Amino acid sequence: MISEIWDIIINSEDAGKAAQNMHTHMGRGLAVMLRAHFQNKELLKISRIPSYEKNAAPEGLAESNLRQESGRLYDILFNHPNMDDYRRDDLLAMLLSSIDRKDAYFVEHIIEADPGSDFTKFEPITREWIFQITEKYI
Question: For residue 96, what pLDDT band results from cuts at 50, 70 and 90?
Answer without folding.
Answer: very high
